[in-house]
Design a protein that fits this description.
The structure is a single chain. The chain contains three helices and five strands; from the N terminus they run H-E-E-E-H-E-H-E. By secondary structure, it is of the alpha+beta class. The protein has one domain: HIT family, subunit A (2-Layer Sandwich). It is globular. The termini are far apart. Bound molecules: guanosine-5'-monophosphate and zinc ion.
Length: 112
């Protein structure tokens, strides 16, 4: 989608700090990090929200990439959090499905 910021990152029209990439998924550091490690794992295929997800292979590809990101960022042993925000009450601001990987400090629960 031409007016989607994450599609533009996927297409390298906007620069990002890429952590991991394969044919299905790109992972890059969040521009406004909420933790010492804050990487976004994004399926290359444009899907607006989790409720529009139909192809569950996307999830499998994303979770393979999340494990790789955790190893690359060296948070796989200490622990980390994976978050998907959905619509306004979930705090979604970019309407291209993405998974936040947060780590490098103690995560608090509930998140607020
Ligand atoms: P959401 O609020 O939709 O769950 O998460 C969107 C995330 O994307 C936010 O944490 C925000 O900081 C990040 N973000 C928005 N625009 C950009 C961008 O152009 N580059 C990067 N790297 N992150 C972005
Ligand atoms: Zn998109």
């Amino acid at each position: 989608m031409a007016d989607c910021i994450f599609c533009r990152i996927v297409n390298k029209e906007i620069p990002s700090k890429i952590v991991y990439e394969d044919e299905n998924v790109i992972a890059f550091d969040d521009i406004n990090p909420q933790a010492p490690v804050h990487t976004l794992v994004v399926p290359k295929k444009h899907i607006n929200t989790i409720m529009e997800l139909e192809d569950y292979e996307v999830v499998s590809n994303v979770f393979k990439a999340i494990k790789k990101v955790a190893e690359i960022k060296n948070i796989d042993k200490d622990g980390f959090r994976v978050v998907v925000n959905h619509l306004s009450k979930g705090g979604q601001s970019v309407f291209h499905l993405h998974f936040h990987v947060l780590g490098g400090r103690q995560m608090l629960w509930p998140p607020g």
